[in-house]
Amino acid sequence: MNKEKKGFALIEVLIAVTILSVVLLSVYSGISSGINIINNSKNTTEAVVIAKSLMNEFRINKMRGPDLHDVDIENKPGFRYDRISKRYENPLLGPLLAQQTDIIVKWDYKGRENEFVLSMVYQLK
Predict the structure, then answer these.
(1) Which residue range(s) make up the domain with 25?
(2) Cys-Cys with 105: which of 27, 47, 109, 112 at CB 3.0–4.6 Å?
(3) Contact 83, 101 (CB under 8 A)
(4) Count of structural domains, the chain
């Protein structure tokens, strides 16, 4: 009778360890996903601030300057941007006397390129 109790206790321990490992694996997965979401949100927020700052510089320079491609951003390693200006075309009205400038901030996160686009449409003088 004593041997049956020991075997039963061993099975209980094995089941408890299995359940515990499944629970800990799901907790670890949740924490890891949360950290990834926080880091990507931080990068997106930083890209928004960078794009607004670059657009303000462009506006200060009276909306003039050449198109730029893959320019590294000072003090922000891993971030780069494009600035593209083109004539604005309204989907319903066609080409107008307006210009559209896009600031595209890019960064890599976990081997995947992400980007944030800020556009401004303004009247040509």
Answers:
(1) 2-123
(2) 47
(3) yes
(4) 1
In this prediction, the residues of the chain whose per-residue pLDDT falls under 70 are: 1-8
In contact, 98 and 109? CB cutoff 8 Å: no
Spatial CA neighbour of 110 closest among 45, 30, 37: 37
The one-letter code for the residue type at 19 is I
pLDDT, residue 4, reads 57
Give, as one character, the DSSP assignment of residue 95. Answer: E
Element (H, E) at 20: helix 2-60
DSSP state of 64: -
Amino acid in the structure at residue 13: V
CA distances from 23 to 9, 28, 54, 89, 90 (A): 21, 9, 47, 55, 54
Token output for 32: 């890891």
